[in-house]
Amino acid sequence: MRLIGTLVQLCRTAAFALGRELAAWKPSRARATFAAEAVLSVALSVALANALGLSDTWWAAISGFAVMQTSFAGSVQRAAHRIMGTVIGAALGTLMGPWIGDRPWLFVPALGLMGGVAVYGANGSKAAYAWILGGVTALMVTYEAHKFESFQATALFAALRVAEVAVGTLACLLVASVFHFGPRWYRTNRKPVETSTARAAAESTSGEAPASASASTPPLASTHPARMLLSVQAAVSITILASLTYVLHLPGFAQAMVTAIAVLIVPPGLAADRTQQPVMEKMVQRVAGCLLAGVLGVALLPLMHGQAVLCMLALSIGVWVGCHVQTGREGASYVGRQFTIAFIMVFVQDHHWSSDPIPALMRLSGIVIGIVVLAAVMLGIKGTRLTDARTAKSFWP
Description:
single chain; mainly alpha; 15 helices; about 0% strand
């Protein structure tokens, strides 16, 4: 009953936060700039992916959005982490997948182990995003390998996955570069005799955050119990998902895996018995954003009639709205981010514009399945020694 009460309270908090954000619609220059960058990045990602004939255009579009940050330096760092994680994960999946794909007794626990290691590494590393992408890509390629039953087919799938991520990431960096260097070039050529004081003032408003000392992170030993708890939750959840998908062929396995990993990344320094609250908040906000995007997107799709111009216009508006909510300060930031990602899933089909909502609903169903399984695992683990902060220090070596 206590867990249900907490869940209801989190749902109310997310709903009220989103309501406040929409009611206080105040598009500042910084928020409008970020939204414009994200919209252009997604549009360019889709255009490039279609031009290259990539099979999963929506992965490129999501990469174009996910890499974009409010600062140019942040976008560059995130791009490097996304590419690095994807390449390493694709290579690992290509090497392991064909070897264990036809051995369920080895294949299923191996997927769980991959997810657990990825979550453990992400929660203790400055390159958390690389760990996440590496884990997700390795899981995806390894899982697909059991269907291909061929090293060559698996390698081709992995290469396409890397290409889709690379296209979206490149599009993001191109757009971010234009917004970052363009104003500087314009000011330099417009006022070549600019004084050093004026130049410094101009750079302070360019949108680049000043460098600051990184926040101190707790020693790894002190965070070990929490990281282990989260990694166990991820491993068990992905093992269950892999088993169900292997036997029942459940839809949206990729998104279920992404969900099980993404929501288990928490702020550093939390004790083991303090991780449940932030994870549940992310679960609630992820579901809320995805459901809103799914309902709105599926309602709009038939009106687009598969026409590229109308679909791109609706996609751009949805990305803009999601980015505006994401950059707000009313507590609904994660709702906005998940809304944007889900809206991209709905409108960007595999390799062409379409009004068919089935592919999007399959992906969104995977997110819901991932949340349900993870919630059940958290409930099952709750109350064990893993969540007891008083015994965690002595329980873990």
